[in-house]
Amino acid sequence: MVGPGEVDDDLEEETREECSKYGDVIQVVIYEIPSGVVPEEAVRIFVQFSRIESAIKAVVDLHNRYFGGRTVKCMFYSSDKFEALDLAPQPDELPGEGGPS
């Protein structure tokens, strides 16, 4: 949705508003990866819904949607990692370290 350095004060609220179409949003967390990834993957936006059905609808509808000149990638994330705020990419997700290149 946005690239490195493009996160602004409105992004969290805009994301919450857009995702509330699918159900009750509990929390939006924005995590900017400091380095080591391509710009298209440098900002991760996590949305926690109150119901799994809402999350499923959001992933189905938003995945591969074009927004702000970028393709949105949506997927489910480990609840345990999210609750621990372990939001950084794992080594196998980074180019050159066994991940995509």
Q: How does this structure look, described?
A:
The chain is of the alpha+beta class. Helices cover 25% and strands 19% of the residues. It is built from 3 helices and 4 strands; from the N terminus they run αββαββα. The strands form 2 sheets. A two-stranded antiparallel sheet has the order 1-2. The radius of gyration is 14 Å and the shape is globular. Residues 97-101 have low confidence and may be disordered.
> Percent of residues in beta strands?
15-25%
| Count of runs of 4 or more consecutive helical residues | 3
In order across it, which strands form the biggest sheet? Answer: 1-2
What spatial form do the alpha-carbon principal axes imply? Answer: globular
Radius of gyration from the alpha-carbon trace, in angstroms: 14 Å
Q: Average the pLDDT over all residues and give the rounded result.
A: 87
- Count of β-strands: 4
Q: What is the rounded distance between the termini?
A: 21 Å
User: Unreliable stretches, pLDDT < 50, 5 or more residues?
Assistant: 97-101
Q: Which structural class do the helices and strands define?
A: alpha+beta
Order of helices and strands: HEEHEEH
Assign a percent range to the helix content: 10-25%
Largest sheet, strands/sense/barrel: 2 strands, antiparallel
